[in-house]
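Structure ticket #2291
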Amino acid sequence: MLKTSFITLRAMASGLRHAFRFRTIPWMDRVILIGRGSMYVSRRDNRGRRILAMAGVTQPNISSLWHALSAKMTPDVILDIGANYGEIAFCTTYSNATSVHLFEANPYLEKYLQQSIQSRPDCGIFHLHMCAASSSVGIVSLTIDKKWSGTSSLVGEIGDSIFKGSGEGQFERTEVSSIPIDTVVNCASKTLLFKIDVEGWEINVLSGMSRLLTESRSFAGIVEFDERNLARAGGSANELRQSLSSYGKVYLSKDFLPTYNEDLPAHGDFLVLKNINLSQLRSSGSKRPI
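Resolution: structure written out below.
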């Protein structure tokens, strides 16, 4: 009981800090993003409730990095691949000249993403694609995690974990369309900002956006990796790193250090840059992004 109360109080304290830092207000079924509309979530989803409890920010370091990249780069095109409720894409504002594309395969999240987009003052720059980003056009099997939508995947059931919260695990399998990013977005000679978080399917996504990455004048990307999930798709974190390094310089986003074969953690986030000066993303005297 005492341990549960402590965890609850700690979560509340984190939520208050995030609300102040990121200018957010959790309210009923949404998080009000001051000056940026609202982010709607399902209260029946443990991840949706977690987003509300954390004032819309469950990954503060990634949200801060995304904000810094967007502000420094002023990208022409933005891709949030594996958007979930849009926590990262919706965390900041963009130029009216920017085109923002959200890719999400889970059909249950469509209405929440649509509501969030329509609430934004810059809703006209957003494009929602309810499909799985992959290496080819086709049909793929999606395992929907009904308990924690963030671990819905194309690699099968991802087992229960303490971060998923209370309740029995429940999964649903369905078929969804898959599409390469290269067939949707033409970004040649432009500045690109992207995020990939697809629970093990990252290498397939990269295969489907090779032209975009090759032809873009400059880009920055945040790519989550999990060794176990990548292995279930037939890959590895090192293979993902090597694939990314063929397009740009690869760092671990936690500390902006270069990556090598022997020092990859089991789980983390890569930062990949092409013609972007890393020093521009650091605060004066700090390794943290502005």
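Closing remark: The chain has one domain: 59-281.
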